[in-house]
Amino acid sequence: MKKKTIGVLIPIIIVVGVLGIFIWPNPVIQNTSFACALTEGNPQGPYYIAGAPYKEKLGEILEGQKLIISGQVLNQNCDPVPEAIIDVWQTDSNGNYNFEDFTLRGKIKADENGQYKLETILPGKYSVAGVMRPAHIHVKVSAPSLPSHTTQLYFEGDEPNDFFVTPSLILKLDEKDGTKYSEFNFVIFTP
Ligand SMILES: [Fe+2]
Fold it and tell me: Are strands 66-75 and 126-128 parallel, antiparallel or unpaired?
């Protein structure tokens, strides 16, 4: 094979490979025929670590913009999902994941009405194969005996957006006393 052909093929293989890592485990799920439309899915990506502990706050000891996201976990009939679990992982303010321990990784428990509150810091952007990803928080939302629903949350005004960002997953941010606030309801499928 000619050198020129190889030079063209290698970047294509890298891009397809990276997209495959992000897309393959969790295809995008969308169904708007329900009373409450399912939260759009987003790929898990390669940085998930199973077994994160239950927490009420993430990143307490880290510097960064404080962020509180709250809302409810509902099903496709708009009923609350009691005791839902939101498994969260994200980068620090500089766009770095921690792999040594469960810093900025944890499971948030919703209450009997599906209400949850996530206290954390605003994540940073990072580069994948030379392409910048906007700031995002990964989540797997589930409940006892239910499969998890995987997606990512993004933030208004952030740039650059990439292939995975969809309007329904972009959070609007308010600010009070130096803390950013947002509300987001997750809608997951229950049998
Ligand atoms: Fe990520």
Answer: unpaired
CA 40 – ligand 1 centroid, Å = 16
Which residue ranges make up each domain of the chain?
3-188
Q: How far is CA 89 from CA 26, 66, 98, 154, 183, in A?
A: 16, 16, 9, 13, 18
- Residue 5 Cα to ligand 1 midpoint, Å, equals 32
CA-based torsion, 164, 167, 171, 175: positive or negative: positive
Catalytically active residues, by annotation = 97, 126, 133, 136, 138
- Give, in words, the CATH class of 3-188: mainly beta
Write down the pTM of the prediction.
0.84
pLDDT at 145: 87
Q: What is the per-residue pLDDT for 161?
A: 84
Residue listed under structure tokens 């077994």: 51
Structural tokens at position 40: 């759009």
